[in-house]
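User: Here's a chain of 176 residues. Predict its fold as C-alpha cells.
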Amino acid sequence: MNTGSLSDGLITSGKWKLLLIDTASNTFESIIYETISGESCLHSNLMRFKWTNDCNFANLDYVNLPFTNDVYIKGYYTSQPYDSKERVINTLSNGETSLVFDYSVEKKEFSIGLYTESFFTTLQRAFLHSTIIIDNLYYKQDTDSKLTKKPEGKKFSAKIELIEVGSEVVISKCCC
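Assistant: Prediction complete.
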C-alpha cells in the first residue's frame, strides 16, 4: 500500500491506494480505496455485491469453493416499471379486448460508480454467474440484460438492469 503520495488528510481518513512496480520498473497505481467498517458501511452509498455459481465457471469448481465472492461497490439502483414478458389478450368479435394471461417481472437498473477497466471486466464476469446478491436480495439477468460501461476519464461507470428474484407477477382470467 502506498500512502506516501496521498495527502495527510486522506491517510488519516482511512483512504489508501495500491502501488505496484513490476520488474521492468513500470508503475501501476490503483484507484483510492477507503476503509469502511461497522455502522459507517450502512450509511454510505455502497452496495454489498456477492456472486457465486451452482457448478463450474471458467474451470473453477464453485461447489467446493470455500468462499463467496464479496465486494462493496459504489452505486445505487432505480426501480423500473414492470416488464411484461408474456401476455395473451382475447379480442371479441365486437372489438372488445380482455386480458387472459400476463407474466411480468420487476426490473431494477443498477448504476455502479467509478472503477478501473480491470474491475469492469470483473463485474462483467460476475454478472454471468447463476447467483447474484446485492444488499442481501437475489437477482437474475434478463435475456436482454447487458452491463454497459461509460468512460469517465481513465475510469468507468456502469449500468445493468436486473430482475429481483420473487418479483414475478402472474395475472390470469378466472373461468366463470
